[in-house]
Amino acid sequence: MVTHNDDNNNNLYIEQGGHAGNVHDFDKNLDDDGRAKRTGTMMTASAHIITAVIGSGVLSLAWAIAQLGWAIGPTVLISFSFITYMTSTMLADAYRSPDPVTGKRNYTYMEVVRANLGGRKVQLCGLAQYVNLVGVSIGYTITASISMVAVKRSNCFHKYGHHVKCSTSNTPFMIIFGCIQILLSQIPNFHELSWLSMVAAIMSFAYSSIGLALSIAKVAGGGLGRTSLTGVTVGVDVTAADKVWRCFQAIGNIAFAYAYSNVLIEIQDTLKSSPPENKIMKKASLVGVSTTSLFYILCGCFGYAAFGNKAPGNFLTGFGFYEPFWLIDFANVCIAVHLVGAYQVFTQPVFSFVETWSKKHWPENKFITRDHPIEIPLGNGIYYFNWFRLVWRTSYVIVTAILAMLFPFFNDFLGLLGALSFWPLTVFFPVEMHISQAKVPKYSTKWVALKTLSLVCLIVSLIAAAGSLQGLIGSVKKYKPFEAQE
User: What parts of the sequence cross the membrane (predicted)?
Assistant: First the structure.
């Protein structure tokens, strides 16, 4: 079954064996909006959240805490966790409007903003969301290739010894990752990705647990790095200016680690309508955010304890490709497999937006609108092939892979993405929609508190963006594209 809707959700059509009907022609197999009955549960939503949250961000947390130190690092982590959960509950209530339980469904973040705020804010939301989603696609391509390179280099070191350079280029692995994504991108919509998110969530737990276990083993074996309350030491590890910029960048990296608001509405749209979606989504957010926060604190703190102020950008590669090399290999393979699924979680909303927009503007163009039914062997149903989907999604994957090859800077890129998306998508729009939907009186205590929170988070995002941009510019100056890593 394939569903289509126009931008205003006024004309909903269900195509199944050539039959089409309007929103009133639904039966027990359809939801209240005429779409195929949603089957998502708290478990599948939690898996989607964990897949989206525990991504490449966890790998940089030891480095981030090394910049901030024992006093500020864990505090910033816990603060981001609390803010993310609080604003995600506000966003969950905005899925239906005007009433969060019985109101009209809004299928995307932009539609939620349109229904609750309207005006220019809709365009600003779209710009922030889709720029971030494209950026995440590039960031995940970079991270997956780094992990695959780490596997090849560790095997090389194990075979030939650590005196060998074992130079390896990221480019072939980015091409392999891109080819896999071209195939998976032909999955028609987000509702059919639950199995992929389940696999990805398991992988994220696996590599986070391995990294944590290795860090604990290193600490227990007396391999404590030099740490301090304030992190890297000025005059010893870095200059005063570098200290400031690195702290700003570290905040951006932590913000990126919690970024999933840009796909929350799409995740919520997969849930069954009973119990109410907002209640289930709040429970799933609590499970997802609390689980990932626990992993983040453990990985970040034990990673910092193990490596000290010299913690690497990707703490799994910091174990130096030493024994047990097979365990490091397995962890890096888990990262790559996880990012295969996470890439789809973040790109499906981009695919859907462009395809819906194109069908609205060129409804008579058969290349864009016509689906060709193909029977899947062994009685596994029917796949609806679409030429426009094939060309557009393939082109998107190729472009993001090329951009990743040109700018493969892990920490700088993650920090910039986190800084750019945190305030608008995680804080500003959820807070503004909550004020509007709950009719919070202007200048009341609650109104002032929410506005203050938004302002503080804006300042944090700006300084994080400045730090990451400075790091990115410095990396670009030294970088030579397509060269092998040593």
Answer: 45-66, 72-95, 193-217, 284-305, 325-346, 390-407, 413-431, 452-473
Question: Closest by alpha carbon to 47, among 336, 255, 342?
Answer: 342
Look at residues 256, 271, 348, 259 and name the one whose alpha carbon lies nearest to residue 95: 271
What is the number of other CB atoms lying within 10 angstroms of the CB of residue 360? 13
Query: 10 Å Cβ neighbour count for 53?
Result: 26
Residue 334, token pair as written in the block: 């888990």
Please give the Cα distance from 384 to 188 (Å, whole number). 8
What is the spatial distance between Cα 314 and Cα 328, in angstroms, rounded to a whole number?
12
Within the chain, what is the greatest distance between any pair of CA atoms?
A: 72
- Which residue shows structure tokens 């005196």? 163
> What is the C-alpha to C-alpha distance for residues 133 and 396, in angstroms, rounded to an integer?
12
Token digits of residue 106: 């809004």
The CA distance from 265 to 293, in Å, is 21
Q: Encoding tokens for residue 443?
A: 């200048």
Amino acid letter at 329?
D
Residue 360 one-letter amino acid: K
pLDDT tens track for 156-191: 877 887 777 777 788 899 999 999 999 988 887 666
Assign 19 to helix, strand or coil.
strand
SS3 271: strand
| CB-facing half-sphere around the CA of 477: CA atoms within 13 A | 6
- The residue ranking higher by pLDDT, 119 or 480, is 119
Instruction: Report the distance separating Cα 23 and Cα 11, nearest Å.
Output: 7
In this prediction, residue 449 has a pLDDT band, given cuts at 50, 70 and 90, of very high
pTM above 0.70, yes or no: yes
Beta bridge partners of 97: 104
Q: DSSP letter at 372?
A: E
| E-assigned strand segments in 279-422 | 372-375, 382-385
Which percentage of the chain shows pLDDT scores above 70? Answer: 87
6 against 419, higher pLDDT: 419
Between CA 297 and CA 307 the distance in angstroms is: 15
Distances (CA, A) of 351 to 160, 284, 443, 456: 45, 25, 41, 33
Tokens 């890439």 belong to which residue? 343
Question: Environment class of residue 319 by beta-carbon count within 10 Å: exposed (0-12), middle (13-18) or buried (19+)?
Answer: buried
Closest by CA position to 265, among listed 90, 434, 431: 90
Domains annotated for the chain, with CATH where assigned, are: 38-478 (1.20.1740.10)
Residue pair 369/20 in contact (Cβ under 8 Å)? The answer is no
CA distances for 42 relative to 67, 256, 274, 287, angstroms: 36, 24, 11, 9
Question: What is the distance of C-alpha 339 from the center of its chain?
Answer: 9
